[in-house]
Specification:
The chain has 275 residues and is α+β, with helices and mostly antiparallel strands. Helices cover 54% and strands 22% of the residues. It has helices at 2-28, 131-163, 166-197, 203-208, 221-239, 243-274; strands at 39-48, 54-60, 66-73, 79-86, 91-97, 100-104, 111-117, 125-128, 211-212, 216-217. A four-stranded mixed β-sheet has the order 4-1-7-8. Strands 3-2-5-6 form a four-stranded antiparallel β-sheet. A hairpin with a 5-residue loop joins strand 2 and strand 3 (66-73). The longest helix is centred in the middle third of the chain and has 33 residues, at 131-163. The chain is flat.
Amino acid sequence: MAIMTTKRRQYSRNIVALTLLILTAALTGCGGKKDKGSMSFSIEGRLENAANRMLYIAEMTPSEGEKFLDSVKCDKNGNFKYKGSMTYQTFFDLHCSEYDYIVLLPQDGEKIEVVGDANELHTKYQVKGSPESQLMWQINDYVNQANLAIADIAQQDKRNKETLSPEEYEREHTKTDSLFVAERQTIYLMLSNFIDDNYGSLSTLYAIDAPFNHIMRVFYAEQDFEMFENVLEGLNEKCGDNPHTLNYRTRVERARSARMLAAQQQQESQRIIVE
């Protein structure tokens, strides 16, 4: 009987411990909020061509854009260290120059290692110690590879225009146009799969807004609204109270309302035509 009582007490303690563990995990997920500054992380690494240069850290806020946080000076070998905190999981960008930056997505307690080249940071960096920051790297790599392929296609088209007759150029231009479309379809499929594979991760927010050929986007709400809905569904399920999710939810709801209004107007126009 004493043994059974002891086992019951141990079982109760295990249940309590398991409950606390589950609650802790819920609080430290991408949606869980904690006391101000209680979620901590660190970033350190080494950048080539960064001797004695300043490295700037900013938060990419849900609704106010980029918010400068701090700066650290790299030593003579390009080494740097930074300790940060956050009240909820969010995005941080690191940059030495205004237009060349990388985006990290830390989780509580992570020690993130970054190596790269300060002169070409967004195309020449690697990150360890942060699974979701590695997902951000993957998106960045998809975009970089697509941009390189598009640049090659544009260069080939330029050479054709300079060296071929107008008739020959038109034939070749049709081919380069096809290559351009194929490249866009490739990154579209890669990022679609990425969103499916990382359902509920905040990194999918970055994927849905990924650029293409610098001035275009991979996904547009008008024709790809199902993808936007898919991202929102995952975020609602996994981190519904994260401010990034709340901001994105408002954005999708507005787009949904606009689509419904456009559909109603189209139906009304068709009804008038029929009558």
